[in-house]
Design brief:
This protein is mainly alpha-helical. The protein contains nine helices and no strands.
Length: 316
């Protein structure tokens, strides 16, 4: 029976992993659009929409919300395919199988959180968890795509410890900035519903909660930007690998664009379209951090000598 199962080559599996990653990024963008168009409660029940699992008799907010649910089904199918195909890939790689299995597990968690978000009328905690879990799934999907497109012998060799550690230090800071962004959104004017729907907003700082959170979100975002710039100069000083320097350059550009969008949305009183761009840029910035970490390579083990660092350039 097992002998009859198809075998998948490295190239074909890399394409499956890439497709899974791309569709997972797109579903984050469409999910943000659902919220910012006020369509989060367009289908007020779950899993059915107005009493139907599958229906074409919806319009407006219900159509947007139901359409996003249908796309989620396609995302789930690709995630399952990536997991199953990892076990059919030849030669088999344990790292790809582990990462592949994480995708359908994560998507299943997203479906549950999405349902709970609807059932609890878009309570901030559920919606925040829904978005943050999507970023964790993207981390797994990116790692799967990155590794699937490279054989173990092609992966970056052990790098200078300070370079790897400095790059990886951006991850917790970027994750905190993402979290603060969800808190800002959960206290802002876009609850995800429209009309007469009443959605609870965060108000732990009274009437000034949104302003207070936005300012702190901006401070940590600035810290992330400064850290990325410092890392960029450090990588030039030690003549780090060109792939890593390219990734950090893209990260710095993404952070600059994100900062500009953040200022615009604050000064224009948070219009939905600009907020959507801000969410898109936040996701792309997170992916840039993941790219930089992957490009930095792994730390040398105790048995492996660290590569010699190129001497710093001397300028007259």
């Amino acid at each position: 029976m097992l002998a009859r199962l198809p075998r998948i080559g490295p190239g074909a599996y890399a394409r499956i992993a890439t497709a899974s990653f791309v569709i997972l990024v797109l579903i984050v963008f469409s999910g943000a659009a659902v919220r910012l168009t006020g369509s989060g409660l367009g289908c007020p029940t779950w899993p059915k929409c107005h009493g139907h699992l599958v229906t074409t008799e919806v319009s407006g907010h219900a159509a947007i919300e139901f359409g996003n649910r249908m796309v989620t089904g396609f995302v789930a199918a690709l995630a399952v395919l990536a997991a199953l195909a990892a076990f059919l890939r030849r030669p088999f790689r344990r790292d790809l199988a582990i990462l592949g299995v994480l995708l359908p597990i994560g998507v299943a968690g997203q479906v549950v959180l999405g349902g709970l978000s609807v059932l609890y009328d878009l309570a901030p905690g559920w919606v925040m968890g829904h978005f943050l879990l999507s970023q964790l799934i993207l981390a797994a999907a990116f790692a799967l795509m990155w590794r699937a497109r490279r054989e173990p012998s092609d992966l970056p060799p052990p790098a200078d410890r300070r370079t790897v550690i400095a790059t990886r230090a951006l991850v917790p800071l970027a994750a905190w900035v993402l979290f603060m962004g969800t808190v800002a959104t959960a206290s802002g004017p876009h609850p995800g519903a429209s009309g007469d729907d009443v959605v609870t907003r965060l108000s732990f700082h009274g009437g000034s909660t949104m302003t207070w959170v936005i300012h702190w979100h901006g401070r940590f975002s600035t810290l992330l930007g400064v850290s990325a710039i410092v890392l960029w100069f450090y990588l030039r000083r030690v003549d780090a690998a060109s792939g890593l320097r390219r990734a950090v350059t893209v990260l710095c550009v993404a952070l600059a664009v994100q900062g500009a969008v953040g200022i615009v949305q604050y000064e224009t009183k948070l219009p939905a379209g600009v907020v959507w761009v801000h969410v898109v840029m936040a996701t792309l910035t997170w992916l840039s951090v993941l790219w930089a970490v992957a490009a930095a390579g792994r730390l040398a083990t105790s048995e492996e000598p660290e590569p010699s660092r190129a001497p710093a350039r001397v300028t007259a």
